[in-house]
Amino acid sequence: MLTLVRGLRRLGGNGATLVALVATATLLAVCGSMLAGGSTDTASTQRYAAAQIVVGGESSAVVTREGKDKDVALPGPRPLSAEVVDTIRDRVRGAGATVVPDIAARLAARSTKDWIPVTAHGWSARQLGPLGLTSGSAPTNSGQIVADESLGWSAGESVEILTEAGPQKRTVVGTVALPTGATPRQAAIYLTDEAATALARRGARVDVAAVGVLLPAGAPNAEDVADDLRTALERKGVVVETGDARGQIEFADLARARGDLRTLSGSLLAVVILVTLIVVGSTCALALSRRRREIATLRAIGATPRQMERLMVGEMAAVGFVAGVVGLVPASVVTKVVGWLLRAVGLLPHDFALALNAVAGISAVLLTTLVALATGWAAGRRTAAISPVAALASAAAGEQKPARWVLVLGVVLTVVGVAASLLPLVVDGIVGVAVAGGGGLLLVFGTALLTRPVVGALFQVVSRRLLASTTPHRWLAGAGMSGQASRLAAGVAPMMLIVGISLVQILVPASLSAAAQREAAAGLKVDHAVVAAGYGLPSAVPRSRDQHRPVTPVVRQQVVGVTTVLGGPETFRYTATGVRDRAGDLLDLGLRPGSTWDPTTTLGTDQAVLGTMTAAALGAAVGDQVEFVLADGTTVKPQVVGVFERGLGLGDVLLNYDTLTDHRSVSEPVGRTANLLLLPDLSRRPPVGEVVSAAEAFGAGGDAVSTGIAASTVPLFALFAYVAVSVANSLILSVTSRTGTFAMLRRIGADRRQLARSLVVEGLSVVAAAIVLGTAAALLPMVTVAYGLTGTPWPAIPSWFYLVVVGAVSALAMTAVVLPGRLVLRERH
Amino acid sequence: MSTGTTAAGGAVPALRMTDVSKQYGRGPGAVRALDSVSLRVARGSFVAVMGPSGSGKSTLLQCAAGLDEASSGTVHIGQVAVTGLDESQRAMLRRDRVGFVFQSYNLLAGLTAYQNIEVPVRLAGQRANPELVRELSERVGVSALLRRRPHEMSGGQQQRVALARALVTEPEIVFGDEPTGALDTGSARQVLALMRELTHRDQRTIVMVTHDPVAAAHADRVLFLADGRIVDEETTPTVDVVLRHMARLEASGC
What range(s) does the ABC3 transporter permease C-terminal domain occupy (chain A) (predicted)? Predict the structure, then answer.
């Protein structure tokens, strides 16, 4: 560390700028790689390898309002309709191709041990691999299956599969393996086509996950055929893929993770660019203020402002380019670390590899050079344009006023941020809350731009107080801080950004989780539930003694609510809950007066009960018709028969159980299996799944808030690391720039201890200012969001999170102040 | 703090160095920066130290002021033996008994002139007597500028504030390191006249290192240093005399 600090000092101002820019390049490359979506991911197709063309369902649907279209994301790929399969058959008949539909059902199976999730395919789909029998024979009746060799089952063995009706016996008659000998990424069993079709039936249709087209040898180019199919199947909600892209149809979870990653990094990128500009700008300003005398001298000996500007822009461009290239080294490591963290918190599948992307790397180098150019130009223009006399004078003064446009922008951002933050008080529902969250970010950035004057005023007061002290190190700290607004602001700004952004970023998820937790606790009349990872639970539960409180299957499904805003479609993602039989016995929904539905009856297929926030967002009341897009892209228009209070905890909308299970995506559990079973008493636990608390099953368990925070802070991890680097950077620069002053004070009789302690006092003041400013900037939205979601103004941010942020910032700042201070003081006077 | 010998009856010199040597490094590569230097500076005198670069001027100043430890020999400031004090005792000695004036003034940028004058007193954990500060500032001619910050003052004014800062603890002796080096001729003359006046009228003691024959000519006594020894001394310096001495020194040095 000390060697690093020493090296930095040698490099002087440019060293600090270089470090800030290297960190910038790293951050941009990491973000870019996330946006590119893990391009080194090698999960190419396995079971469809022999089909040159694979057709699968899209993971999105189109909604239309008043002639305007909008794409909405679905939780998984839509199944292919019989009409699509027929169209494909017609189109490729001429080419002599074989068309094989892949019927797939996601269920669980076991031999003697635990249930494991497997996909059941029809036997004909084996040709798509093509998978070959490694032992035994093909299935000939519904009681027989062929299993992946990797499952470890042998022919003749008796196994069970778990359907909506419960466990059922099957006999393994053979095993298959991939032609490559690789272990399949998803385990599968093969049934006769008839058995698979029966199993994959959902309501009126059968889940066809994909259609593979096997072209004969000497057939026309697969790309041409694929293009023809694309034309024929346009606007049918399908994707036609060839080559490596076929893996995206086979592995919907990977495709989905990629999409999630794109959304995540997209929303992160704006924050990143703003933070980058502020951080690099302030470091660059600090570095330039150290070199002001040199610049003043050059101006004095006759360099024109234009020459100076060019000199500085040229220099910064060179520094930026070098930094960009150097930054790619840490970027490749950080990308891997971020990928690891995202997998750890479950945002990415366990085998999704995130790695540095070439295009992202090159863009990062270019962007870094541009950022360097821009800041060099802005800082240099101001420094170079003043007259030589003023330059020399201000070189002595060491202070420069902040640019006017920075202040104006800061004020504008702050005002807009305040206005946005107040929205939850006026507008009900998630819209107000979301806008307030965005407003919080604006407030934080506005405050960051205003740090110079604010910190100046703040430290004026602090240093005056310290100068009144007769304790030498306090007085020394006061003397060191007096009139040093720009130096101190450069240290405070990035730290307050960390505090502010951390609070604002977790604000909405933490508040939502906290509210959900409370509502679930209040709304669940049972303590336990059964859940399963990766498969559905049987919904045919034996009814026994206690008819009032039976074991109740529940489906939790993502749906999209559609409404019209400003003459166009507006969509919201909701979690829908479907309760088989009567919800009223096990759930206390908190129905609002005016509801026409009796919770002790089953909800009809054309009925919906909305949570209050959902009703507010969709603008619907009892009696209105609402529109939802279900997971398979089907649109339903049920009538609202009730509005209930506990939507955040129990589900944003209640729909009929069968409506939800019959319209699942192909990557979801088979048939009418349940996502969870409510368990009124533990003695009746079924022989499958895992017993958890009912709240946890509804995603509102005791650690829901922490999980929510983890999920929303991990993407910011790289950003925090970046800001940390720049905080350390600017503080080190700020301390080492005072070597001369310390040497003088040592000479006139200050001892080392006094100076070291004065640095500690200064460090503490900087930390305190950053924490106060960061918290203050985030406070307003914190209060209004909490009020909007829970009705109380007390922010839902857990104290441990706040303490972690504050502790991390303090530790960082104190290390960055005390360590270089030691070094400076150790030197000979 | 140990107390040095008191010369019975007679005035104690402000600075007394006896056989002081300073050696950097060890073995054959060692550099002898000071070679058995003995020197007495009487209270109320204004002494200039001159010599070519590398003659040991800075080392002499550092050893005399207790910034650095002599390798051998003794140094007394007033009655206090500097030799043998540890690091923090020497810091206290500098704070209470020694004043410093630097070439580049070295005022604290964020503080007013008044606050800058106060610095050594504050380092001792006390407040300066406002009367004393006012008196001093009048003495050095900055009483109208007490509320200004360094960047609002000229170089000459800043150096006067620095002088007041050096004097505020009523030190035994003030050391100057090229105190007029950064000033224009006019300001330099004024500051030198002030320093001369302070020694003669107020019985202050000033030892300064300088390159400038004009500055040296303002002193009562000029010591010439070469290769770590005092090789010459002039008690009635004029610019011409000093120049002649320097020329001789540089010729012999080659």
Answer: 267-388, 719-826
Q: Write the pLDDT tens digit of every residue in A285-299.
A: 666 666 666 666 776
pLDDT in tens, A179-198: 888 888 889 999 999 999 98
**Span between the terminal Cα atoms of chain A, in Å:** 23
Q: Do B110 and A479 contact (CB within 8 A), yes or no?
A: yes
User: Phi then psi for B33, rounded to 5 degrees?
Assistant: -80, -35
Tell me the C-alpha distance between A518 and A791, whole Å.
Answer: 12
Q: Is A736 within 8 Å of A820 (Cβ atoms)? A: yes
- Say yes or no: B122 contacts chain A, CB-CB below 8 A: yes
Task: Point out the residue among B108, B123, B126 whose CB comes nearest to the CB of A741.
Answer: B108
Q: Which residues of A touch B124 (CB under 8 A)?
A: 472, 749
Report residue A674 as tokens. Answer: 């349940």
Q: Flag if B96 and A463 touch (Cβ within 8 Å).
A: no
Q: Which of B100, B127, B150 sits opposite A747 (nearest CB)?
A: B100
Say whether A816 sits in a helix, a strand or coil.
Answer: helix
- Angle, alpha carbons A752-A753-A755 (nearest 5°): 65
With an 8 Å Cβ cutoff, is A686 touching chain B? no
The reply to whether residue A748 touches residue B94, judged by beta carbons under 8 angstroms, is: yes
DSSP calls for A698-726 = TT-STTHHHHHHHHHHGGGHHHHHHHHHH
Domain map (residue ranges) of chain A = 1-43+258-400, 53-250, 403-509+702-829, 525-697
Is it true that domain B15-253 has CATH number 3.30.230.10? Answer: no
Low-confidence ranges of chain B (pLDDT < 70): 1-10, 252-254
Contact B98 A397 (CB under 8 A): no
Across A318-357, b (16+ Cβ under 10 Å) vs e yields ebbbbbbbbbbebbeebbbebbebbbeeebbbeebbbebb
Q: Cβ separation of A470 and B165 shorter than 8 Å? A: no
A248-260 mean pLDDT: 81
Q: CA nearest B96 in A: which residue?
A: A749
Q: What is the mean pLDDT of residues A499-524?
A: 84
| CB contact (8 A) between residue B110 and residue A745 | no
Q: Give the one of B99, B102, B125 whose C-beta lies nearest to A470's C-beta.
A: B125
The predicted-structure confidence for A100-147, as pLDDT tens digits, reads as follows 999 989 999 998 878 899 999 999 999 988 888 899 899 999 899 999
**Which of A339, A266, A359 is CA-nearest to residue A41?**
A339
- Chain A residues in contact with B122 by the CB 8 A cut-off are 470, 472, 475-476, 479
DSSP A541: P
For B187-202, the pLDDT digits (tens) are: 888 889 989 988 988 8
Domain boundaries, chain B: 15-253
Cα–Cα distance, B159 to A609 (Å, whole number) = 83
Q: Which residues of B touch A754 (CB under 8 A)?
A: 123
Structure confidence by residue, pLDDT tens digits, A426-479 = 777 677 788 888 888 888 888 888 887 888 888 888 888 888 888 888 888 888
B-chain CB neighbours of A397 within 8 Å are: 109, 149-151
Amino acid making up residue A232: A
**In this complex, do A483 and B165 lie within 8 Å of one another by their Cβ atoms?**
no
Any A CB within 8 A of B99 CB: yes
Please list every residue in chain A whose beta carbon sits closer than 8 Å to the beta carbon of residue B151.
Answer: 393-394, 396-398
